[in-house]
Amino acid sequence: MTAEQTGLVLGEDGLSRPQWASVHEDLREYYDTEWGMPVRTERGVFERLSLEGFQSGLSWATILRRRDGFRRAFAGFDPDEVAGFGAAKVERLLGDASIIRHRGKIEATISNARATIALRSMDGLGRVGELGAGSTLADLVWSYRPAETPRPACAADVPTTSPESVALAKELRRHGFRFVGPTTMFALMEAIGIVDTHLLGSHRRGSSGLWPA
């Protein structure tokens, strides 16, 4: 396939990246160092889940360029801190230009922090029960890692959902999470390394160490 057919762009550094990661330096840096690398901590997964929720209907560049603002506004995405946000804090966040000022998404992030805490003490309830008491959001999300990962040769081959992302979305909604649809959960799974959707030919293919190149 030609570069036009694959959607890969050869950078001045001689490395191939997808079109979306070749437009601006901050996107290249994110692609080269973060996207698709394993994130397994509760706080790390909660942050990525929250940011994916805020991205809904927007570009990732819009979210990435506000990430520092999001981290300040949401206490470094510490679920215990965010769970304590009340109505007054929501109103302050709605006036914070360093984040996306969307009431539904802000309130969902707070609600999701509370659901994240609740997961720790659940036992005998579906997937969480299978994992055992004391399991975290990260444990639950990673339990949906598939047996195989996509191997996209071009951008058109990259899926937007999977059976696992559909099942994960359903399970999270059952536990009270919001803004966690199948497409958003597949994007989360891509971002934290659960699947590898780097294009074949990208210099990042297989970089997580979890999947063969």
TrEMBL record:
Pfam families: Adenine_glyco. It comes from the Bacteria. InterPro entries: Adenine_glyco (IPR005019), DNA-3mA_glycosylase (IPR052891), DNA_glycosylase (IPR011257). PANTHER family: DNA-3-METHYLADENINE GLYCOSYLASE 1, DNA-3-METHYLADENINE GLYCOSYLASE I. This is DNA-3-methyladenine glycosylase I.
